[in-house]
Design brief:
single chain; 181 residues; alpha+beta; Outer Surface Protein A, domain 3; 2 domains; 4-stranded antiparallel beta sheet; 3-stranded antiparallel beta sheet; 37% strand
């Protein structure tokens, strides 16, 4: 029994949900999203709530129940308030700049690294060391942030690199030096 799948989704004011051609279209103040619905899952709107249920009780339908409910919930949250990830750049001379749709990173290589932002993701650069990514698609914003972080992950000795805001880097002790003779 899916506990997550049984939870009802509250549709906030200003968000419009409609079904067309076996797909769900959600639009709101932040943007629009579309998702194809699986035939094993049925979605009904009752007033300002959405109820997700499954057609059968087989294993595959049960495995999709909670997933589809959360995907629809993430779509509604995305078009109503949006998602954001913040990256911090640590290191001497490390910085970021925005040139059109490209994020230009100076992260210790011999040349600046250009990262083209995908459609649906906007970036802002604060103080040259803080990059904020925003968008309506939770997966796309998170994947873009992970790809940028992978360009120069934080190293454990000095903590230089790109990390998420609030991420705790486990630091290691360096060489202890010569002792005695």
């Amino acid at each position: 029994m899916s506990r997550v799948g049984l939870k009802r989704i509250l549709v906030p004011a200003g968000v419009k949900v409609e079904w067309r051609d076996a797909s769900l279209h959600v639009s709101g103040p932040q943007g629009k999203m579309m998702r194809a619905l699986r035939p094993e899952i049925t979605v009904k709107q009752e007033g300002s709530e959405i109820v997700v249920s499954r057609a059968s009780d087989d294993r595959f339908a049960r495995s999709l129940h909670g997933l589809e409910r959360n995907e629809i919930h993430n779509m509604i949250l995305g078009v109503s308030s949006g998602y954001a990830k913040t990256l911090e750049i640590n290191g001497v001379g490390f910085r970021a700049a925005l040139e059109g749709r490209d994020l230009v990173l100076s992260i210790g290589y011999s040349h600046p690294t250009r990262f083209p932002l995908p459609e649906g993701v906007q970036a802002t650069v604060e103080k040259q060391t803080v990059v904020t990514l925003k968008g309506v698609d939770k997966y796309l914003v998170g994947q873009t942030a992970a790809t940028i972080r992978a360009l120069k992950p934080p190293e454990p000795y000095k903590g230089k690199g790109i990390k998420y805001r609030g991420e705790r880097i486990v630091r290691k002790e360096g060489k202890s030096g010569k002792t005695g003779k």
